[in-house]
Amino acid sequence: MREREKGIALVEVILALGVSIVVITSLVSLSLYTLRAALQGKLLVQATNLSNEELERIRAYRDLAASWNTNFLTPLIPCATANCYIDESLVLHTSQSDVRNASTPLQLTRYFRISDPAGGSIDGTENLIRASITVSWKVGTQDKNVFIYSDFSNWRGR
Predict the structure, then answer these.
(1) How far apart are CA 158 and CA 153, in angstroms?
(2) Are strands 97-99 and 108-115 parallel, antiparallel or unpaired?
(3) Are 133 and 126 in contact (CB under 8 A)?
(4) What DSSP character marks residue 51?
(5) Are 110 and 100 in contact (CB under 8 A)?
(6) How far is the CA of 116 from the CAs of 16, 93, 97, 102, 154, in angstroms?
(7) The pLDDT value given to residue 70
(8) Distance (Å, rounded) from C-alpha 59 to C-alpha 64?
(9) Using CB atoms within 10 A of its CB, is residue 29 exposed (0-12), middle (13-18) or buried (19+)?
(10) What is the mean pLDDT of the chain?
(11) Rounded to two decimals, what is the model's pTM?
């Protein structure tokens, strides 16, 4: 009867090993999912901050302009059809800004376009324009984006 008990212990060890493998695999999968979600959350916060920063730069660009039509709106007309960004020195560029820093291994791309909120084309006579800011990045094969927009008015007068 004691010989049978030795065989039962072997079955118990194999069963415990199988359960342990399932538990360890589940924990590793959960850890990877959590790390991926944390990275995506971090990138989403950074992209939102970058888009808000671009929005503030457009606002500062408008507020520093001597006049609405000549100094603010006319230089922005190409931004109706091309990607634009404003750098730290408040200089307008008709391209997109690629942002990469030490805390993020991925590259984020930032740009804005302007449009007429009423649906017309931008011709330099509008007293209200809409700036649509996009920040995009790629995680693996997935494209991720943050979009914000704001309307800017000729607040100094018409």
Answers:
(1) 10
(2) antiparallel
(3) no
(4) H
(5) no
(6) 68, 20, 23, 38, 13
(7) 85
(8) 9
(9) exposed
(10) 88
(11) 0.78
